[in-house]
Amino acid sequence: MKVNWPERIWVNSPLRLFVQRQETLFFKRMRAMEPGAHCLEIGCGRGAALGLIGRAFAPGRVDASDIDPAMVRLAASRKHTGLVPRVLCLVADAERLPYRDGCMDAVFNFGILHHLEDWRTGINEVARVLERGGVFYFEEIYPPLYANFLFRRLVAHPTENRFHGPEYRSALADAGLKLLPGFKENRFAILGVAVKEGR
Ligand SMILES: C[S@@+](CC[C@H](N)C(=O)[O-])C[C@H]1O[C@@H](n2cnc3c(N)ncnc32)[C@H](O)[C@@H]1O
Q1: How many whole angstroms from 20 Cα to the centroid of ligand 1?
Q2: What pTM value is reported for the model?
Q3: Does residue 139 contact residue 184 with C-beta atoms inside 8 Å?
Q4: How far apart are CA 19 and CA 105, in angstroms?
Q5: Where residue 101 sits, what CATH number does that domain have?
Q6: Ligand 1 mean position to 58 CA, how many Å?
Q7: Which residue from 24, 81, 141, 153 has the highest number of Cβ atoms inside 10 Å of its Cβ?
Q8: Distance between CA atoms of 169 and 154, rounded to whole angstroms?
Q9: pLDDT digits (tens, 9 = 90+) for 128-173
Q10: Domains contained in the chain, number
Q11: Which residues pair with 191 in a beta bridge?
């Protein structure tokens, strides 16, 4: 589900960028990546994380995908040169990623799975496109944050089939994504790193 205008103001704000910067530094401390990796960001929004991923991980290529063509246009118009050698911005549904199995070294999710009607399919898609040993870096939020008395009037999200920490963590495990110790979680959100098992 696309973001509505109040949420668009938030995700396009300097404060959001500051939060994402701190989160990316946390991701790097949790699990570094070999330089030159091929990464995918699902629900990239305006693409603000591209530069952060570039600085932190020195990937060879980042594919930035979003279901909203207006967001993809914004992401494509950013200047990423020097930080990521190759950037591909594309319109894609995180429930049906247009990639073959096992082709990504890492996938980034900055708060988009709760926008999916079928979030478990989103997690399964992340696991499918990751190679064995590939890394899933994520920030995800729970209903007490986005569906509380105030925010459910302001922002638009699916209302059925929602998840909190236990369902989210068990869906990662069911998809073969092993959550690394050291993740941060409270009743509102989780920030963590999971690795596709089987290497
Ligand atoms: C809360 S915003 C987060 C944007 C950005 N990742 C950030 O952290 O600022 C959620 C993003 O997910 C995108 N989105 C929603 N449903 C999606 C889907 N099914 N597939 C891909 N992207 C989706 C929205 O268009 C929006 O850009």
Answers
A1: 14
A2: 0.95
A3: no
A4: 24
A5: 3.40.50.150
A6: 23
A7: 24
A8: 27
A9: 999 999 999 999 999 998 888 877 877 778 888 999 999 999 999 9
A10: 1
A11: 139, 184
